[in-house]
Amino acid sequence: MLADKIMPNEYGQAILFYTDKADKGTTILEVLENSKQAMKQYLQSIPDDKIDYQYANGKWTVAEVIQHIISYELIMTERALVVAGIKTDSLKFTFYTQSTTVAGAKNKSKQELLEEFTNVRENTIEAFKSLTDGELKTVGTLDGNIASVRMIGLCISGHQTHHFNVLKNRYGLL
Asked: Is residue 154 within 8 Å of residue 31, measured between CB atoms?
């Protein structure tokens, strides 16, 4: 498994909150692919009439949780490329808040969210596929935490799993 190959100097303890929840795989590409399949299956299992459901007043809707997963992935992929030493065109995700990560979720159907997720994940996989082994092991600082590029990839998968658990436990969506 990839997690077994990662050296202790590639991460700080705080990052383990998400990386410990990452899908299994022997490479980061396998982890991201397995995570993609899990997301597609999970999204397809959500009843269409539950996409606008929120378990309490002021909490995110299911669509907003899914949009947050998608937005987080965009942010983290860009950060992974920056840590790898690849200059991105815009650095548009340098500053963000939790509320900005759900922007645009209103009025999106489950199918639209599934398509958006699939497109974003395919771009993420292509970005990670373009990196050398050395670039994947490059270490940088992420929100004050040490993380290698491949650990950032594990965060993408683990963040998704974390929110699946929220949807299961708080929203009652299995």
From this structure: yes
